[in-house]
Amino acid sequence: MAMPSFFSLLPHRSVISVAGPDRVEFLQGLISNDTRKVAPDRAIWAALLTPQGRFLNDMFVAESGSDTFYLETERERAPALAKKLKMYTLRSKVTVEDLGAALEVAAAFGDDTSKAFGIEGAVSFDDPRLGTLGVRVIAPAGQAATLLSARGFTEAPLASYDALRLPLGVPDGSRDLQVEKALLLENGFDELNGVDWKKGCYMGQELTARTKYRALIKKRLFPVKVEGALPEPGTPVHRDGEEVGELRSGTGDRALAMLRLDAVRGNGAPLTAGGARLLPETPPWMRLPDPATSGG
Questions:
Q1: What pLDDT was estimated at residue 296?
Q2: What is the mean pLDDT of each run of 10 residues along the chain (296 residues)?
Q3: What is the pLDDT of residue 104?
Q4: What's the chain look like in SS3?
């Protein structure tokens, strides 16, 4: 049976423009994915890292025409990101502008998300992480709901989009990734198309590559089913009285949790957070290291 077409406004997401003839090369040296892949019909997902390879910002990079990229990123942290990018421009022929007041973001999901394309005045792109996540839409502020409703989409609260995202194990910026601490490969950026291993150097690339090729991953962000009241994000996860992880974002009976691999693989005691029991799941896209080689 066909699933209806929905959209959720994403008020916690915003947009920065990077415009000019050097925009591809400029971003190429900074973020984890290959900006040469961006085309009118293709966006990428990427991260900006610290020089030590720790997470700073996630972003979708989409073509918006007129030698301009739109960077869809976290609203609360967008001004700081725009300021940081401006610092890096140096002699590059690029301009960086925070468009948070002018644009808004929505996610269209469910049946026939192709209806979200070709909307005049909007930029739409398939979510490059997983097709199940639908289409992201960047529209003039205050207009996304009207434009998508006119295309046959029904508005749903952000919790409805989270109810789609969470069982898939897909992180949502700093709601799930600790700023200046998180490693990309612990949070699915490899399998979810957020890292390009063939592009040249970018900030934080050395540690990211070393983590992959030395199989250093000991913990991962997992989707979990929650039995009991949903604990607050940041609640420690325990097994047999030992702390083995931490809860991240959640809604209803679903959440994400950063968990030690050995704790997930354990066949004994349950995982608990606050007064709730957590049942970790491994989504089909996730590739876990062989316990024999990882020591996990």
A1: 42
A2: 84 98 97 97 97 97 95 98 95 96 98 96 98 98 98 97 98 97 96 95 93 87 98 96 97 97 85 96 92 52
A3: 98
A4: CCCCEEEEECCCEEEEEEECCCHHHHHHCCECCCHHHCECCECEEEEEECCCCCEEEEEEEEEEECCEEEEEEECCCHHHHHHHHHHHHCCCCCEEEECCCCEEEEEEEECCHHHHCCCCCCEEEECCCCHHHCEEEEEECCCHHHHHHHCCCEECCHHHHHHHHHHHCCCCHHHCCCCCCCCHHHCCCCCCCCCCCCCCCCCCHHHHHHHHHCCCCCEEEEEEEEECCCCCCCCEEEECCEEEEEEEEEECCEEEEEEEHHHHHCCCCCEEECCEEEEECCCCCCCCCCHHHHCC
Model pTM score: 0.94
Number of CB atoms found within 10 A of residue 89's CB: 15
Contact 7, 155 (CB under 8 A): yes
pLDDT in the model for residue 4? 86
Cβ 259 vs Cβ 219: under 8 Å: yes
In this predicted structure, what is the pLDDT of residue 165?
Answer: 98
131 phi-psi bin (left φ>0, alpha ψ -120 to 50, beta other): alpha
* CA quadruple 151, 103, 13, 36: dihedral, nearest 10: 90
Is the CA virtual torsion 206, 208, 211, 214 positive or negative?
A: negative
Residue 80 is encoded by which pair of tokens?
């700081």
Do 112 and 26 touch, CB atoms closer than 8 A?
no
CA 249 – CA 15 distance, rounded (Å):
22
